[in-house]
Structures are given as structure tokens and as C-alpha cells.
Amino acid sequence: MEGDVSPLMERFSRSVETDFLMWREDISVNRVWATELAEIGIYTEDELKSVLSAIDLIVEEMEKGSFEFEPTDEDIHVAIERRLTAIAGDAGARIHTGRSRNDQVVTDSRLYLKGRVKDWQIELVRLQDSLIAIAKDELGVILPGYTHWQQAQPILLSHYILAIFWGIDRTITRIKDYLYRLDVCPLGSGALAGSAFSVDRERIALKLGFREASPNSIDATGDRDFCSELLFDIGAFFTLISRVAAEMQMWNSLEFSFIEFSDGYATGSSMMPQKKNPDAMELIRGKSAAAIAAANQLLILQKGLPLTYNRDLQEDKKITFSQLEEAILATNVFNEALSSATFRVDKMQQALEPGLLATDLADYLVQKGMPFRQAHEVVGQIIRRAIHEQCHITDFRLETFKEFSELFEADVFKSLQFPVSIAQRIVIGGTAEKAVQLQIAQAEDRLKSYA
Ligand code: ARG
């Protein structure tokens, strides 16, 4: 190549601001690669020693913050190799023997993600732990369950909270599967065709802590499924907590007042003194937009590319790493905001409309032998009468019920109670307290399996 790269292009092509994050992984890769080069006779013992001690010095500089980047340090790999050459001379310069940044960058990325995704997993399990604690604390609290934002049937608050638990659990199991596929070592794949030096790729994989060496060098260097798959998991996670956040905002409004966020996770308005905004929830909902877009962006980034490395792929880390950080942060905020919130049991109770028991009334008739469709129709008529008389279905006396069906007996009033409605739903996964207790035990077992 003749001529220098223009400073403008230099700036345009730099990725060091992002890939700096994986300097430790680049160090590990350099150590293992240098050792491997010694194994195959590229380095003498002395050269290896000087390269390894130069690497140690770089680690020191990085940790102290005294490592100096230069404008020509396009990425972290170039920066470290430049410094290695400056310290160890010729031996440093030969570190790149038989490897390419194409296999180096994906090896670093996979190593980095392995660590950071596990950190996320830990935070997700902590969130699950908090959700179980809330479910246990609030056991017995009844609130209206909504469909179409209409009061539908009474449910236990703990049941709702555990719904979040199982959604989070899907994220965790997805991540587990993902980590298995992530755990493959591309180093030794070279630029695309495999290293021309006979390094032992299985030994390298083992030393770096990977499950196996990648089986195909073209696939290994060009594939970014390990980014898009993670971004899908992040997008699905954000979609879940964004839905909960939207509901919590509603619960937080004056009209509902089911939940009160602690001052730490809500803010006042600069203008309206009466306001306390559920900012944590709003930001979760807001940030989910970028998370969902990111999965899409990564797939679009790849869709037109031939199977090998193309420079476009440099954009992968900026998106993936930043979204992973957002996911970790959002997991913590969501956890803290919910854990420190107060659930207003009194307000939930006040909100319970007797109309929530309409299904129970129909079920009552079914138990007395009426086909459900007919029971549905009869209860519909009773509700219309209640609307007409501006009262609740629970206000009618037995005589009135009997006008609609002879099947009604005095025991109808027993089934027209919220706790009774709840207790009926004792099926696995139902909202009855016993069923919810079983669910809590299941959730706890799940958590133990993650310990
Ligand atoms: N900074 C690049 C990236 O992150 C490293 C790979 C560059 N490879 C190349 N052939 N230019 O993708």
C-alpha cells in the first residue's frame, strides 16, 4: 500500500473507544498466542520470556491508566501490538505470526461477552430472588386482574409478581443456551482460511477457557450470530420489563395508586409540585426502544455480507456491548425500583368491583347443571339489570336471582366473594393461594438450581 491513511479516515475507522473494553481479553489472547508460537518454534524461550514480561508491563500501564493511545491506534489490538513491539522489539513485532485481527477480534469478543453475560445472569437471578421475596411478603393480597385494561377477574398480587419471575426465567434459560454456543474459540482461524502455522487449536481453546475450537475458519471469522442472538435475548428481556413498566406507571397514577415508588426511583416535576413521576419505569420503557432496534440492527448489518470478515462487522461491538451494559443496568434498576416500592393493599382492595365476580356467578350456575353458554347469557341479563338499577350484582337478593334462574339457591352468596373466587382457581398455575404457594416453591427450586 502506498501513501498514508488520511486523518479523517483514521478517525472514521477507529473502534478503540469501544473495543478498549476488551483489553484484558486481548492480553489473555496475546499470552496464549505467544506461548503457542514458542511451542511451534517461532519464539525461543528467551523471546517468549521477553514478550510475556512486556505483556505484564502493558497490563500494569493499563491498570494504572498510563497506557498512551496514539491516533493511529485503530483498535485495541493494534494499540497493544504497537506497545508490545515498542517494549520487546523484534519479538513483539512477531506476535502477529499466523494470526489475523479477524480471528483475534472474535476471540476477544467472545471472551469478553462470556464474562459480561455471566455478570448479567447473576443480576437476573438477584432480580428473581427479589420477586420471590415480594411474592412471599404480599401473599394473600387481592387486586383486580385486567384484560384489555378492563377489570376481568380477581387475582393475587403474588401471582402477578411471579408472572414477571417466569418471564425473567426465560431470559435466563435463553442466556444459558446462548453461553453454550458462545463458548467456541476462533483463534487460529487466521484471516479466513486458517492459520498457516501449525498451532494446536484445541490446546489454545482449552487455555483460553473455551469448550472447543471452532470447526470452520470462514464461519468463525465471519459469523456474528453470537452478537445478534444476545441482542435478541436483550430485546426480549427489555420487551418484558417494558410491559411491566407500562403497567406499573398505570398503577402509579392517582386513579389507581396501587404502587408507590420510593423517592430513590421517582422524581418530582420541576414545575408541578404535586407530581412524583415513575421515572425508572418510564426510562425502562424508553430504553427498550434501542434494545429492540439493536437486535434488528445487527441482523441488518450482516444480511448482505459475504460469509467472511468485512469491515462492516466492526460495528458489532458498539451495539452489542452497549446494549449489554444497558441490560445489566436496567435489571438492577428494575429490581431496586420494585423492591423499594410500596404496594398499596388498601387501594387494590377498594378497586375491586363486584363485576369481577361475574364469571364466578356463571360458574355457579354451571355447577348447578346449566351449560356455560346459557349461564353466560343469564349472568349477562343480571348485569344489565344491575346497571339499570344502578347497583352491583352482589346487591341482589335471592328472589331477584331466582327471577333469572330457578337454579339459584342461598349458597350463591358464598360464591360471590373475592377470596372465594381466588380459592377456586387451584389448578397448577392458578391464582389460588395454595397454587401460588406451590409456584413459589417451584420458583425457589429454580433459583437453587442456578446457585
Ligand atoms: N477493528 C476491527 C474490528 O473490530 C478489527 C478487525 C480488522 N480487520 C481487518 N481486516 N481490517 O472488526
Features:
451 residues, Fumarase C, Chain A, domain 2, Ribonucleotide Reductase Protein R1, domain 1, two-stranded antiparallel sheet, two-stranded parallel sheet, 20 helices, 64% helix, binds arginine
Could you please describe the fold and organization of this structure?
- The protein is mainly alpha-helical and 451 residues long.
- The chain has 3 domains: 7-97, Fumarase/aspartase (N-terminal domain) (Fumarase C, Chain B, domain 1); 102-350, Fumarase C, Chain A, domain 2, CATH 1.20.200; 354-450, Ribonucleotide Reductase Protein R1, domain 1 (Orthogonal Bundle), CATH 1.10.40.
- It is 64% helix and 6% strand.
- The protein has 20 helices and 8 strands.
- β1 and β2 (150-156) form a beta hairpin.
- α8 (157-182) packs antiparallel against α11 and α15 packs across α16.
- The mean pLDDT is 95.
- The site of arginine has 10 residues, from α7.
- Residues 15, 19, 75, 101-102, 105, 309, 311, 313-314 line the site of arginine.
Strand-helix topology:
Elements: H1 7-13, H2 16-19, H3 23-39, H4 45-64, H5 76-88, H6 90-93, H7 101-137, E1 142-147, E2 150-156, H8 157-182, E3 184-185, H9 201-207, E4 212-213, H10 217-222, H11 225-252, E5 259-260, E6 267-268, E7 276-277, H12 279-303, H13 315-339, E8 342-343, H14 345-351, H15 358-367, H16 372-388, H17 398-404, H18 412-415, H19 418-424, H20 433-450
Parallel strand pairs: 3-4
Antiparallel strand pairs: 1-2, 5-8, 6-7
Quick overview of this protein structure:
This protein is mainly alpha-helical.
